[in-house]
């Protein structure tokens, strides 16, 4: 019996399972799913858990209910690509084919004190911890959010609706929010923040963090709590694999999403070096192609000379419960419609995944 092992129950591996179960996985194969949690987490919604507007039961789902899935829960401690063994604590799992989808962690850019003195929304557990500390802040406390990308924007707006009594500061490295996208989008978001008393600090450079204090361009500012949303990188165990790694720490792959020196190993999601920014949408698109490659190989059919280009349609963001923003197929959408679109996409995802 051969064993296909999926590391991580994120968007990419969920998509692969949806394509190969129940019938495409060969009868002489078993499937082993390894994750630290006994459920699939909706990572793009973690900011709501941290802000206190949703409970964790609203942002998690069961894994597919199939007798062909063997689940192993725990922290992965080693990936031995030569001997084809994955270690989960004291448990050893042999594999014939492997998909690495272990996601990412915060990137602190060597800022002294950032890892020790800031909170995170990169995992469900860390988002819970962040919520716990935010919920205990007194009236008038100052919360600093470092990084005004999509995660920072959504966290700041959601936290404002959850805690009207807090002073919220969003530190942005750029001249304006989301500078790579149309100025109309930036102006809409900045207008919402101004109306709702969220202070955006442009041209920020947080170069040190201490307990109760951050340094912006070397100037100290008192702050009661800091959440770090200023960059991500693949998890440590992936960054240290004996394979070609890009400058961003991601695994360099061939066009079939395989490690060139270990073609029975695929990498999906945040750990893969791709010409797009990491996202759930990208991981799903990549999962589609990995499933197609696997099925062709299982059937003994040749792989295509060239894989189709992965195209990302855009992104959706929330500004609290009723407003939002989107950039879809080179078009900007703002307001209630964008919020409805995002809610609809989330509903469809939950519906199609049980």
TrEMBL record:
Gene3D superfamilies: 3.50.50.100
Domain FAD/NAD(P)-binding: 3-287
Domain of life: Bacteria
Pfam families recorded: Pyr_redox_2
Cofactor: FAD
Keyword annotations: FAD, Flavoprotein, Oxidoreductase
Record-level Gene Ontology MF annotations: NADH dehydrogenase (quinone) (non-electrogenic) activity
GO biological process, alphabetically ordered: aerobic electron transport chain
SUPFAM superfamilies the record matches: FAD/NAD(P)-binding domain
InterPro entries: FAD/NAD-bd_sf (IPR036188), FAD/NAD-binding_dom (IPR023753), NADH-Q_oxidoreductase (IPR051169)
Catalytic activity annotation: a quinone + NADH + H(+) = a quinol + NAD(+)
The enzyme's E.C. designation: 1.6.5.9
Record-stated family: Belongs to the NADH dehydrogenase family.
UniProt xrefs under PANTHER family: 64 KDA MITOCHONDRIAL NADH DEHYDROGENASE (EUROFUNG) (PTHR42913:SF3), APOPTOSIS-INDUCING FACTOR 1 (PTHR42913)
Identification of the protein by name: Type II NADH:quinone oxidoreductase
Organism: Staphylococcus argensis
